[in-house]
């Protein structure tokens, strides 16, 4: 049976925002976050939804929020489908993809943690390498001679701006502190590293590597909370530990499958990486959906319930 897809939602509450994936509604003193099946690449929302994607993102996040709550409180008030307004309970297609959360004031930075050198970080590392072997990146000094997908000596905190459109831009810790204050910057860094390291320990027990990830935090009544999502295939790079081989790009349980197909289109000059994006072939949609569900299986140890 083909899974039902949700490209957008229309609920009888004020809309706070419609992001690349989530529709956010105002419930007064709370927010309702609904993860759609939209998928974006190269900052373009594509016209082809990915079955089960939103349900995977919501339920994986809830798994991690529960696991890491002793390390860092989070904004969730109820798990998927619990204590929702009747307008949501009566919508079968929303089951498993929505969550009620506390309102917070989000910090204007993305808290990125990297344990491995991959993707844009690998490209930046190669560009930063100097003739004397010294590599200065993100305001940090890294060892010379690292390869694509190599493990870093220790996880590094590499914050970015939070762009509403276009690309987030890397900033140093000092630049971040200039925006949010020294004490807050230190707390965000420490909590991001702690949650990442806890995630890595669990993932390792499940045969997965968390190469890198990004977190968002918000403040409510003086308390810093982990918000939005945590350690999902949209916000993280997951690799299979059994097939991990440094020195080359690694297959990952995320939308890299889509990016690779789109990049091939761009290389053939059949798409200019601007909106509107192309329709995805059925095999790409199906393969991407399976990668998201496999990430859920591997992380949680259970099957995603039918939607």
What does this structure look like?
The protein is α+β, with helices and mostly antiparallel strands and 307 residues long. 30% of the residues lie in helices and 23% in strands. The protein has 2 domains: 1-103, 2-Layer Sandwich (Phosphorylase Kinase, domain 1); 109-240, 2-Layer Sandwich (D-amino Acid Aminotransferase, Chain A, domain 1). The chain contains 7 helices and 15 strands. Strands 7, 8, 11, 12, 13, 14 and 15 form a 7-stranded antiparallel sheet that branches. A 4-stranded antiparallel sheet has the order 1-2-3-6. It has a two-stranded antiparallel sheet with strand order 4-5. The mean pLDDT is 91.
Which descriptors apply to this entry?
7-stranded antiparallel sheet; single chain; 307 residues; alpha+beta; 4-stranded antiparallel sheet; globular; 7 helices; Phosphorylase Kinase, domain 1; D-amino Acid Aminotransferase, Chain A, domain 1
The tally of domains stands at 2
Structural class: alpha+beta
Low-confidence stretches: none
Question: How many individual helices?
Answer: 7
CATH architecture of the largest domain: 2-Layer Sandwich
Gyration radius, to the nearest Å?
19 Å
Outline the secondary-structure elements.
Blueprint: E1 15-18, E2 22-26, E3 30-35, E4 40-41, E5 44-45, H1 53-68, H2 86-89, E6 98-102, E7 105-106, E8 109-116, H3 120-128, E9 135-137, E10 140-142, E11 151-157, E12 160-161, H4 173-180, H5 182-205, E13 208-220, E14 223-227, E15 236-240, H6 256-267, H7 282-300
Antiparallel strand pairs: 1-2, 2-3, 3-6, 4-5, 7-13, 8-11, 8-12, 8-13, 9-10, 13-14, 13-15
Helix pairs in contact: 1-7, 4-5
